[in-house]
Structures are given as structure tokens and as C-alpha cells.
Design brief:
By secondary structure, the protein is an alpha/beta fold. The chain has a single domain, classed as Aldolase class I (TIM Barrel). It is built from nine helices and nine strands. The longest helix is centred in the C-terminal third of the chain and has 12 residues. The two termini are 21 Å apart.
């Protein structure tokens, strides 16, 4: 994988509450032209869902998000994660993610945090929480002093606001929950998710 940021204009950020939904969800995203997913560790079913996707739908690149501890990094890796995403970056967490050898996007919200990642040789990061932390205007300002940083903004981004982010030189993709919202997953509305994925893939 060359870069997580180049897989799709939008990475669907999802909460899977029932592992049985994982495979049909993965297939709906693929059918819509989105080859990547970020499964957040915000439910008890998350690790089982990740393992099912990795095993049964290997053509979908499954990442694991909301990683906040080294133990979670280890569990996500064992479950079959292809990349790792965290909301922020403590030294212990960054060390644990680096040790896996997998691509990872540590979360940043300030210029100092971005510079700290650059000190570690990390140039690709998650900007979180994107809309609350300043949105496209903030990222446009950051691009001047830190042109080597590439970001995946996540948090509060909608289908309407995504193009404003994607137009920026320092944004590779965005993370969004609108493609596969929890209610659509619970309802098994795979047609709606496939349609949203098609629209996202075209951004």
C-alpha cells in the first residue's frame, strides 16, 4: 500500500455494533467503489467485525480507529488491521503503532503536534476533530509553514463540506461517517450505503 491517504477521497468511519453486519457492509462499500474502511473501537463487536472483514472481504482495506492504548494496537493488529488511526498521539501509543510495521495516521490538532510528528519522521496524519479545530481555513494556513504534512481530516465533515477539504494541497482524503451511518448499518440498508459510497468515490 503506497499511502492510506491515496486509497479513496473519503474513508468511511464506522461503528459496527453487530459483527454480523461487517461483511455485508464491506461488500456494499466495495460495490460503491470505496475500497477502504475505518472501523472504530467504539463497540464491543469491533474486533470481531474487523477480523470478519479482513478474512472474508480481503479486497477491502480495513483500518482500525479510535486507538488510544498500546493494548488496543496489539488487538487491532491481531484482528487483521491493515492500517491504524488514533485521535491523538502519546509517545507510548506512537511507539506501539510504529512497532507493528503497519501504516498509521496519528491524530493531531495543532501546529506543535504536527511538528512533533515530523520530528519522528511522520508526514501523514489525521487532523481531528476537523471542523471543531478550525476546518479548511485552519488547514490552509498550516500548509504554508508545514508543506510536507499530508492530512486526513476527520470529525464533523459532511458530504457538503468534504469538497472544501479535498481542494486543499495538504489534504489527501477525509474521514466521514455519513457514508455508513450507524442507523443505516443497524437497519441493513446496504443499498443506501452503496449509493453514498458511489457519491463519495466521485468526489
Amino acid at each position: 500500500m503506497s499511502s492510506v491517504l491515496d486509497l479513496s477521497p473519503v474513508i468511511p468511519v464506522v461503528v459496527i455494533r453487530d459483527a454480523d453486519d461487517a461483511v455485508p457492509l464491506a461488500r456494499a462499500l466495495l460495490a460503491g467503489g470505496v475500497p477502504v474502511i475505518e472501523v472504530t473501537l467504539r463497540s464491543k463487536a469491533a474486533l470481531a467485525a474487523i477480523e470478519l472483514i479482513a478474512t472474508e472481504v480481503p479486497e477491502l482495506v480495513v483500518g482500525v480507529g479510535t486507538l488510544t492504548t498500546p493494548d488496543q494496537v496489539e488487538a487491532a493488529t491481531k484482528a487483521g488491521a491493515k492500517f491504524l488511526i488514533s485521535p491523538g498521539g502519546t509517545p507510548r501509543l506512537l511507539d506501539a503503532m510504529a512497532e507493528t510495521g503497519l501504516p498509521y495516521l496519528p491524530g493531531v490538532a495543532t501546529v506543535s503536534e504536527m511538528m512533533a510528528m515530523l520530528d519522528r519522521g511522520i508526514t501523514e496524519m489525521k487532523f481531528f476533530p476537523a471542523s471543531a479545530a478550525g476546518g479548511p481555513e485552519y488547514l490552509r494556513a498550516v500548509a504554508g509553514p508545514l508543506p510536507q504534512v499530508r492530512l486526513c481530516p476527520t470529525g464533523g465533515i459532511t458530504e457538503a463540506s468534504a469538497p472544501d477539504y479535498l481542494a486543499l494541497s495538504n489534504v489527501g482524503c477525509v474521514g466521514g461517517s455519513w457514508i455508513a451511518p450507524t442507523n443505516a448499518i443497524v437497519d441493513g440498508d446496504w443499498a443506501a450505503i452503496e449509493a453514498a459510497a458511489k457519491a463519495a468515490a466521485a468526489l
